Amino acid sequence: MKRPLLSVNLRVEQDVVLARQRARDVCEFLGFDHSEQIRLATATSEIARNAFRYAHGGRVEFLVDSDTPPKLVIKVRDAGPGIPNLDEILEGRYQSSTGLGKGIIGTQRLMDSFSITTGAEGTTVEMSKLTPRYAPALSLNRLEDMTRRLSQKRLDNPYAEIEKQNDELLKTLAELRARQEELVSLNRELEDTNRGVVALYAELDDRADALRRMSDAKTSFLSNMSHEFRTPLNSILSLSQMLMQRLDGELTSEQEKQVAFIRLSAQGLQEMVNDLLDIAKVEAGKVEVKAKEFEIEDLFGALRGMLKPILQTSSVNLVFEDPENLPTMFTDEGKISQILRNFVSNALKYTPRGEVRVSAKLKDAETVVFAVADTGIGIALEDQQRVFEEFVQVQNPLQKRTKGTGLGLPLSRNLARLLGGSVSLTSEAGVGSTFCACIPVVYPGARQQASELPPLQPDRIPVVVIEDNRETAFLMSKFLENTEFQAIPAHDTATGLDFVARSHPAAVVLDVVMNGESSWEAFRQISDRKIPVISASIMAGERDRATAMGATAFLHKPVTRDMLLKTLRSVAHRGAVRKLLLIDDDELSRYSVHELLSATNVEILEARSGREGLRMASEEHPDVIFLDLMMPDISGFEVLQELRASEFGRTLPVVVHSSKDLSSEEKDKLSFPMVTLLSKRDTSGPEAIERVGRALLSVGFSFEPVQQHA
């Protein structure tokens, strides 16, 4: 509800000063601080001056809106001819020789809300400011008292008001100067802080780099030394076996005992070496996840058979709970088996009597929790995290007769992480322990189902990747993201051949060995379709056979992104260019391209502007467009955007042919599929035709030379 406080009629110029005084008085009574009083008084006088100057009079009203939140409302009305350029003034585009509009924009910034209605019958400006939160509530009695006191307040003469305004201006300037000094001081502090932060980041980077080097050195050492240790260990085991079998004569009972100790020590050391090598492989990212479908019931059956020899000399019952309502898993069965073997072996070592129970339950729709619970000696709370550290063994009475390396649990944790899961432990000393491994039902690197052809993207070149190793297929797909190629992964040859028939790819990347079998029959079927085949193998020796079979190219694994893209761009093209549209306003540049391509079978169409180029592209359907960026009507950037938004130009290859040095922002504007850059400097000189050829190849085309007739 709006309640009027007072009003001022604008009849003479001194009334503008009076309106300013009244505005300051109202603000003071409403509890605004000194700086806000000055701002609101200034805003009122600016609008009042406009009304008097351009409409020769008007009226200023001060009201209080007591609704939540309460606010001061100031209305300035006049009966003038209106403001003809209001929209331009409010947008800051109006240029005035008299200053019209500047006060309006400045006042708008000072208020919480601001509106103008204008017309031939006059103009009304309504502006408001929220009252201070700390001010007393605007009750009816308080408003009546405020109105009475304002009507009784004596007004200063205009000269006194000018003096007061000057004082306010000086105070404002002093405040601004103080704030400027504070900002300068704050900037200095921020600069010092920034320098400290930069130095700290540099130190952290150095330490992180040092830690990476140490970790790499440790992994390399473990890997290399583990391999080196295996040879002498195998020799010790073989020689001790020969001695135990009496191949070179009988042994005394004492000698047999000594050889048995040697063999037992060598076996323990071999176990440690194998664990160290596995840990080093996981940390180095060299462990291959061989995901396949399997049933948990079959996994438990295999584990039961493996662990049977251990149980023959144990007084502990090993119980496998029957899995119920568990889905078929698609992950590395061998690594889950290794995790559970470590858990069970550890439980049997530290459980003098009772049982070890192995179970599997669903945590949620996508995760299975494998648990190994024992009734053994348990682990104290302070040691429960330490047992997952390498070479850590908790001291206990059983430790003297139970040997271990302290590597089984750390290895299990790393293997679970490799499969996208985690391990955990709950234990109570003297009661028992439960080790859990949470493993995704589907290995995260193999989420895409091979039997479903992904939707084909019309603006990208399809490439079928037939690869049984899902991580490798996943990496190749990632390599081709944000390029002109769309990867279509298939994890067996039957699915791959189906995808080839349905997607009509520009090329096929085919693993030489698929699921343990040769893929040469699939190679022959794809080649019969006249589709380029890129063979891929971890064995470099397969190159000669692939070449003899007619492979277009060969990739030696591991494949890098640059290697894959370079190979695809050299083989997966759409054929020879027959028709090329040259969009360029520079006649000399068009002539140069004509001359350069005169020795090829390319028909060159010319467009002298961007609009003409768009029209010709829709009518002539060229194979490729050479596009200049700087043109008088519309730029090459705009031409490219309109092409990609149109039906005819969505997949049209474009070679941006410009002499402009592009900024990173401009290059981002050109980051469409099937677009490449070719500087005009590259279309001159002895190697110009080769450079143009490479540019065309990168968007899927080549050109043929003119046939010479005898």
Structure characteristics:
alpha/beta, five-stranded antiparallel sheet, single chain, five-stranded mixed sheet, 24 strands, 710 residues
Polypeptide structure, described:
This protein has 710 residues and is of the alpha/beta class. The chain is built from 21 helices and 24 strands. Strand 11 and strand 12 (432-440) form a beta hairpin. The N and C termini lie far apart (100 Å). The mean pLDDT is 80.
Short structural description:
The chain has 710 residues and is an alpha/beta fold. It contains 21 helices and 24 strands.
List the total number of helices: 21
Radius of gyration: 42 Å
Order of strands across the widest beta sheet?
1-2-3-5-4
Total strands: the figure is 24
Topology:
Blueprint: E1 2-10, H1 14-30, H2 34-55, E2 58-65, E3 71-78, H3 86-90, H4 102-110, E4 113-119, E5 122-130, H5 140-152, H6 158-244, H7 253-284, E6 292-294, H8 296-306, H9 308-311, E7 316-320, E8 329-331, H10 333-349, E9 354-364, E10 367-374, H11 408-418, E11 422-428, E12 432-440, E13 461-466, H12 470-479, E14 485-490, H13 493-503, E15 507-511, E16 513-514, E17 517-518, H14 520-528, E18 533-537, H15 542-549, E19 553-556, H16 561-571, E20 579-583, H17 587-596, E21 603-607, H18 610-620, E22 624-627, H19 636-645, E23 654-658, H20 664-669, E24 675-679, H21 688-698
Parallel strand pairs: 7-9, 13-14, 13-15, 15-18, 18-19, 20-21, 20-22, 22-23, 23-24
Antiparallel strand pairs: 1-2, 2-3, 3-5, 4-5, 6-8, 9-10, 10-12, 11-12, 16-17
Helix pairs in contact: 1-2, 2-4, 6-7, 7-11, 10-11, 18-19
